[in-house]
Amino acid sequence: MIKAIVLDIEGTTSPTSSVREELYGYTRDRLPQWLAEHQGDAGAPIIEATRVQAGRPDADAAEVAAILIDWLNTDVKSEPLKAAQGIICAEGFRNGSLFGEFFPDVPPVLRAWRAAGLELYIYSSGSVRNQKDWFAFARGGDLSPLISGHFDLSTAGPKREASSYEKIASAIGVPAESILFLSDHPDEVDAAAAAGWSAIGVTRPGEPNAPRPPHRWISDFADVELD
Fold this sequence. Notes:
This protein has helices spanning 16-37, 44-54, 61-73, 79-94, 106-115, 128-136, 162-172, 186-194; strands at 4-7, 119-123, 149-151, 179-183, 198-202, 217-218. With 227 residues, the chain is of the alpha/beta class. A six-stranded parallel sheet has the order 3-2-1-4-5-6, sandwiched between helices. Helix 8 (186-194) links the parallel strand 4 and strand 5 (198-202). Helix 1 (16-37) packs across helix 4 and helix 2 packs antiparallel against helix 4. The radius of gyration is 18 Å and the shape is globular.
């Protein structure tokens, strides 16, 4: 019996374009100046972590910004990049420049699942901070009360490794066989299934990832069967 549902965001609850064009664009435009202004405080750990990941121990703030923007443009899953994006975009959510965008079927189904007693969690490569803002500042109204917890690369690990899903199951205290994972990425669905979870792929018109056997794929959250 399913007791918890863990959800991906990009391509699953929300259009990929809304993440990559709006959040990424907002970050790209502001990252160099933000890093220059905060290299002695909030930006310091991001600079150091980027130097380590890039193998550039002497990179200054401007070079680090260039590295991070390159990673942003090529969709590298980088913890310092996601941390910087979370901080920078927090301002955008609060000043009305950014909103969480969701497929129309998602909010009503999330509400129905919560009303039925299911616990809902988010597991995304975006930082926990960005995830919380995405739901709190959702266009159409705050969805954050529906979510019991959030996981990202720093708290759970890479999304294509079964060990990350095992770590989440341990953290939420729910047996693997009682957790359902929904994602648009076949490798992530494979990893969750390898960890013993139930897993369903999500494929929506216009999204980049194609379905892949042997998993079940849906195009609407209303098609999820929990019995």
